## 1
Amino acid sequence: MNIAKWRQTARDWFGGHKPGDTVIYHWDYYGDRQDVYSRWFIDMLGVDGKWFIFAEGVDREGAYNAVGNLGSDVRDFFSKYPSPYIVNPSSETPPDINDVISPAAPDSAVERQMIHDASVA
């Protein structure tokens, strides 16, 4: 995998948003017995300029329906406050998108968050 190219794609996907905006994406991960699964995530941009996992969808349709049902009051609420939490990556959780898109984080630090460790799966 070309980590630098993947990170640039993520920067393009997450760039140009304002607080309260959401981005939907999926993350493939390993489960028991090395089976690969996919989970859909909805990230929201906080007023502090940091992304956080706002919700998960069971599938693509569920994720898009969830975003489609977000009222402007919910978006307005979250657009006024800093990101509520930081995610600790595991095999089922994507790397912190803030690290992925930050030019200050080295590729090696992001890559470590992506390595599957059977002891955490």
## 2
Amino acid sequence: MPDLSLTLEELKTALDCLVSRLNVAVAAIHKLAGAADDAFEAVRLLIEDETFRRLEPHVADNLRRSTARSAGRERTALAARIAERVTIVQSEIENQQRDQNACLQQLRLYVMHADDLLRRAARSSLIPDHVPIYGGERILKVKHRLGEVPQDAIQNQLAVWLDERVVMGRVPKDGAALAAELLSRAQGGRPLGIEMLKPKRDAIEAYMSVDRIGVSNGEGVTLAMLLGHRNIG
């Protein structure tokens, strides 16, 4: 049998080594326990947030009843339930993103159609040459074209517009207002530069922005006659 006896000095050295290793292990345990407590406190603050409680009331109630120690003991079941909710929420987010993309596509087509109508109206507003004073002029002019804006910029601007409408809970009152908002937003909020011929011989400005123009009754009749003459012609 081998001799396993130790001298007093050897035993003291071995015990000192064991105590040192035990102290290191205890310090590591305390550090991990502190990190676990901090993590649980962060989770507790999260579940107490009104937004989280509104979105996930059942998860919040279950976690609110837990302590750091009970949560540690039930971590497997808690993790499984949370993972299940994460999967469901991810699926809901994907569905919402798919619906949002479809909506954005329809908005993009709508704004392109509105821009096309606006351009055609401007092209069709040419006054015949034989009309006194205004012959050869266009009743409408549009300075900025949607085709000048990159498609990805249009998509981003429409996405921002859609998010704002959801947050504010407000929609345009009619199709014309919707088209105006979308056209403006698609171009980064800058004015479209729509101008109308001001039917007045001594007008300081031959064309004025539609948000500035104001016509008298006589000027309105003249403008109506010009538009009517163009439509008949």
